[in-house]
Write a structure and sequence with these properties.
By secondary structure, the chain is mainly α. It has helices at residues 17-37, 45-54, 58-63, 71-80, 90-111, 114-126, 128-134, 140-160, 163-177, 185-196, 200-216, 221-234, 242-254, 262-265, 270-277, 279-302, 306-327, 340-348, 357-380, 389-396. The chain has 20 helices and no strands.
């Protein structure tokens, strides 16, 4: 029996002027922020290499070994044709980030309320991990965009079981497979939910849509062998540890710029990393995450999202870690960067009701303070800079 409080599945609420103004203001402020800060971090070696391939021949861009399929490199190759400065290539990732914010709002308002949709979009816009990859000449911002669309389409399609929703789901799934090999972990997690809780009719539609996408993505098999060898030999294999799991979820609040830097984590054990994280900051992050989950439970129950978002947040991390243990591919948070959307949705679900409003406001202030500090550290603290290619180039000159 359908929950009487729940939105009509897949319904499209009328767009009010206030909502439209908030959305436009949010996206414009995000683009302005990127415009003011995108030049501050220097290009690092992965970006330089990506640009070098994009400026080369088409078939080189397609078949050069990388840790991803060639879709992003091909799109970047088209993008740089219109640019006079290589650092402007970062704007492709900026547009993907802005589009992710729009898609998060679009799909969330279909299954929840306008207030939750705007809250979710706000969180995704200013999340430090999303901003980090939104200013990087790599495929992870595009990865986030397509994953946000896929999850949104899945949540809507499970409520409507309309053909057009499943067709769009299949198309986005196929496109995502050409952007990142681990994109397949998203439908893998969805399959668990479908088998355990969704209706048989919805399960059948999901399996058909996924099968069609799998057939459409078969050509990536031709890239897999060379890319696997490249990724395997890139660094010393390190299996997924308990500390890496914790760091994954902490990164959804801290980005890579609160506590130990990425360089420091390469040589620190979990105990030293926790000490360096500093108890006040770590404590605030833990309080933020735990409070968000507790306060979002009523909203997740009302909109029937507990069974969907829980497995979607946990299964991919464990699955990629196990796969890495067998294959020798080192786990990294970027493999599941798309967790930003379900995390943002969970945070947005706190706005479901006015109960515990004082606590909710306090949690939002704490979370966005951590976001702001992380974004500031990444831009202005030397500790969190990855590489300084500008200084290297000047030295070589």
């Amino acid at each position: 029996m359908r929950n009487p409080k729940m939105n009509e599945p897949g319904s499209r609420k009328s767009l009010g002027k206030l909502e439209l103004g908030c959305l436009i203001g949010l996206i414009l402020s995000l683009v302005l922020f990127h415009g003011l800060t995108i030049h501050i971090p220097s290009l690092f070696i992965d970006e330089v290499e990506e640009l070098a391939v994009a400026h080369g021949g088409f078939w080189e861009a397609v078949f050069k070994p990388d840790s991803m399929p060639p879709a992003f490199t091909i799109l970047l190759r088209l993008w740089v044709r219109f640019l006079s400065d290589d650092e402007q290539a970062r704007w492709f990732s900026v547009l993907c980030h802005a589009a992710s914010v729009f898609m998060a709002w679009w799909f969330t308002r279909s299954i929840c309320s306008v207030r939750i949709a705007l809250s979710t979009a706000l969180v995704l816009a200013w999340n430090p991990l999303a901003i980090f990859y939104g200013q990087l000449i790599r495929g992870y911002s595009l990865y986030l965009l397509l994953a946000t669309m896929l999850i949104g389409l899945w949540l809507v399609a499970n409520r409507t079981n309309r053909l057009r929703d499943w067709v769009c789901f299949s198309l986005v799934l196929c496109l995502g497979a050409y952007v990142h090999y681990y994109f397949v972990m998203i439908p893998w997690s969805m399959l668990f939910v479908q088998l355990c809780w969704e209706k048989k009719q919805s399960l059948r539609s999901f399996l058909i849509a996924s099968s069609v996408a799998a057939i459409g993505s078969l050509p990536i098999v031709s890239f897999l062998s060379a890319d696997f060898v490249y990724q395997h030999d890139l660094r010393e294999p390190r299996s997924l540890s308990f500390g890496a799991i914790i760091y994954t979820f902490v990164s959804l609040v801290s980005g890579y710029s609160l506590g130990p830097s990425q360089r420091e984590l390469q040589v620190l054990d979990l105990r030293n990393a926790v000490i360096m994280q500093s108890w006040p900051i770590l404590g605030m992050i833990v309080v933020s995450i735990v409070s968000i989950v507790i306060l979002a439970v009523p909203g997740m129950r009302r909109f029937q999202l507990i069974r969907s978002l829980g497995p979607l947040m946990i299964i991919p991390v464990i699955s990629i870690g196990l796969l890495g243990a067998f294959s020798g591919i080192t786990y990294h948070v970027r493999f599941v960067v798309w967790l930003i959307y379900p995390f943002s949705l969970i945070l947005g679900l706190m706005a479901e009701s006015s109960k515990n409003w004082t606590w909710k406001i306090a949690v939002m202030i704490l979370t966005f303070s951590l976001f702001s500090l992380a974004n500031y550290n990444r831009l202005f603290e030397d500790r969190y800079k990855i590489e300084d290619m500008r200084s290297t180039a000047k030295f070589l000159e």
